[in-house]
Design brief:
Radius of gyration: 17 Å
Oligomer: single chain
Largest sheet: 9 strands, mixed
Strand content: 15-25%
Number of strands: 9
Structural class: alpha/beta
Strand order of the largest sheet: 1-9-8-7-6-4-5-3-2
Helix content: 25-40%
Number of helices: 11
Distance between the termini: 24 Å
Length: 289
């Protein structure tokens, strides 16, 4: 286990955001953007969030000599709504289609729930996924108290659902929020208020991802688990990181004092944690740093 001290918090995102591109699939379209050149790195955001959660990390990955692609998962951000299914396998299928479209293989970075889709893709078609970085990953069953489940359903269903979700989102940063967080949160709130958006969030929240944990041991790509030491979504973040990494036969890196979104809260430390596995996946020629 490696511990990195995340002393550098996020500043402001690049002045010019990359242009949105779209991949048309049979059931809808996936929005993504791209910056940099080199071996392909694809990043998927967590539940109820935007691909711009990687707005600090993606430029750092590009500067290190990679093509950094961030994508909105189905129903989220600028991707279309109204998909028939919302689960890890379905998002994983979208991921594989995007990798094919971009000319993979790809190193995949998945945050939170999207880590399960990254694991699904890596085991479904190993040739497409050169490596994995799982950030605060939900890849194992997490039984909830029935009262908690009821409270979540109420929060996710009432007219207050968008504000309740963004208020919860704000609690997931522990060492400090990014300098642009107020503007980012307002943008997230506007997006989730669009027709169909919160239905996708709710469907993903209560999805059935049976079998993802059984796939962990079958991942053959180089893997790293990056976990904030103060991630409030896990009762024992270090234990979760250690056990998931052991199942993957990979590494785990703890970022002390960091919450659920290390890529936004401590992007440089997150890059430092990922780079050794990224270099292992593609070789030193993929790095210019």
């Amino acid at each position: 286990m490696l511990v990195l001290h995340a002393h550098t918090l996020a500043g402001r995102p690049p002045a010019t955001a990359p242009a949105t591109r779209y991949l048309a699939l049979q059931e809808g379209r996936i929005a993504y953007d791209s910056v940099g050149e080199g071996p392909l790195v694809v990043m998927l955001p967590g539940l109820g969030d935007l691909r711009q959660e990687y707005r600090f990390l993606a430029p750092l990955i590009a500067e290190a000599g990679y093509r950094a692609v961030t994508a909105d998962v189905r129903g989220h951000g600028e991707s279309s709504v109204g998909w028939p299914r919302y689960d890890a396998a379905s998002v994983g299928q979208d991921l594989l289609a995007l990798i094919d479209h971009l000319g993979g293989p790809a190193f995949v970075i998945g945050n939170s729930f999207a880590a399960a889709s990254a694991v699904w893709a890596a085991t479904q078609r190993p040739s497409a996924v050169a490596g994995l970085a799982l950030l605060g990953p939900f890849v194992r069953p997490a039984p909830l108290n029935p009262a908690v489940t009821l409270a979540l359903r109420l929060m996710m269903s009432g007219p207050w659902r968008v504000r309740a979700w963004t208020a919860y989102h704000a609690t997931l940063f522990r060492s400090g929020k990014p300098a642009d967080y107020a503007a980012y949160s307002a943008s997230l709130r506007r997006n989730l208020a669009e027709p169909g958006r919160f239905a996708a969030v709710r469907a993903l929240m209560f999805r059935d991802d049976q079998g993802i944990d059984e796939r962990l041991a079958h991942v053959r790509a180089p893997s790293v688990v990056v976990m904030g030491g103060a991630d409030p979504d896990f009762p024992d973040p270090e234990r979760e990181a250690r056990e998931v990494a052991a199942s993957l036969h990979g590494r785990h890196v703890m970022l002390p004092g960091i919450g659920h979104y290390p890529q936004a809260e401590a992007p440089q430390a997150t890059l430092d944690a990922i780079l050794p596995t990224l270099r292992q996946a593609f070789g030193p020629e993929g790095d210019l740093g």
